[in-house]
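How it folds
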Amino acid sequence: MKVTLGGHMSYAEAKEIALLRQELRTCWDKGDHAGAELALQRLWQVAGDDDELSAEARRWAIKFAA
């Protein structure tokens, strides 16, 4: 993830993360594992070396694997 000075993300990055979270929640509600896989792949890319987002992606992956 691109981080600006001060460790803050841009509005576009925050919006993308919010949309990915929304997509993952929708996939969970619908039981759409294929759609979740795509959203998770993108979340992993966006997370990069961000520990919090990586942990969130791991939690989602575990949730869908169960």
Q: What stands out?
A: The two ends are 28 Å apart (CA to CA). Residues 1-6 have pLDDT under 50 and may be disordered.
